[in-house]
Amino acid sequence: MSRFVVTGANGLVGRRACALLAQKGHAVVGLGRGVRRVAGAHDYEEVDLTREADVAQALSRLAPEVILHCASMTEVDACEKAPEAAYAANVTATAAVARGAREAGAHLVHVSTDYVFDGAAGPYGEDAVPNPGGVYAVTKHMGEQAARVLAPGCAIARTAVVYGWPPVEGRLNFGAWLVKTLGAGQPVKLFEDQVVSPSFAENVAAMLVELGERRLGGVWNTCGGTVLDRVAFGRALCEVFGFDAGLIVPTKMADLKLSAPRPLRSGLKTDKARELLAEKPLALEESLKRFHATWRRAGEAG
């Protein structure tokens, strides 16, 4: 068993990684900005990752063997409107965590995104050359470079359109938003021209945990195993959840005035993860079945 630190422990993937690690018997400390918002068997400390001295002090004291860096500013349009905040969260914080990992002799798993690519020729393999556009994408790519430089041998784990239930308090992920809206009988506009790799949060967390446990380095696409457009995802979700697919209104990205650019033909190839990881990227059908099961359990418990 190992000593793990997980950043972004209140977030969609971080909370699931903490729970899985604790379940497997590891010693886990989750780090988050603000008070603990998720109950669990792991310890928790409040740390502002953009304050480099605080990060260094915490990691020196905790002496982790592995760090899963899940924390990030992921709201694409918010990043575009607040570039200083995006830089602090996605670059400064990553550099601080990477330095702390190196000083502690810990293996770093840094979570990144398919948005480091421009979306001109997806889906992308691990060896594709990034070409980010927009503040979110650029800062996430800079975070990758900071991790590589400051924590040699780290893993860069790219994921995409992560969804799960329950959602993070105060913010609905794509899948949770669809369930809430379609479940209420309300129409949703979905992009028919954006191709993505929707990723079930539990599956992503399990792949990150494996990268940490096995101390694997290099670039990994830790995302869903099916590449499709958002309309097709919405219709598949309707079939599993029993919602009316007629509520889905196909639209083109250019029809909406979005603050930040988004890659159109994106998505990630998962051949490497399927071949080399015990935790395989899930195909869409299985992901949605598990998503539906967690949603039903939460409803029964609540």
From TrEMBL:
Enzyme Commission number, as recorded: 1.1.1.133
* UniProt entry tagged with the keyword NADP: yes
Write down the superkingdom of origin.
Bacteria
Q: Which CDD domains match?
A: dTDP_HR_like_SDR_e
- Pathway listed: Carbohydrate biosynthesis; dTDP-L-rhamnose biosynthesis
Extent of the signal sequence = none
Q: The RmlD-like substrate binding domain covers which part of the protein?
A: 4-293
For the protein in the UniProt heading, the enzyme class is oxidoreductase
Look up the record and give one Gene Ontology term from the biological process aspect.
Answer: dTDP-rhamnose biosynthetic process
The protein's matches in InterPro entries, at most eight in alphabetical order, are given as: dTDP_dehydrorham_reduct, NAD(P)-bd_dom_sf, RmlD-like-bd
This entry's Gene Ontology molecular function terms read: dTDP-4-dehydrorhamnose reductase activity
**Catalysed reaction, written as an equation:** dTDP-beta-L-rhamnose + NADP(+) = dTDP-4-dehydro-beta-L-rhamnose + NADPH + H(+)
State the UniProt keywords alphabetically: NADP, Oxidoreductase
The family classification in the record reads: Belongs to the dTDP-4-dehydrorhamnose reductase family.
Role this protein plays: Catalyzes the reduction of dTDP-6-deoxy-L-lyxo-4-hexulose to yield dTDP-L-rhamnose.
- The identity of this protein, by name, is dTDP-4-dehydrorhamnose reductase
Native organism is Corallococcus sicarius
Q: What is the lineage of its organism?
A: Bacteria, Pseudomonadati, Myxococcota, Myxococcia, Myxococcales
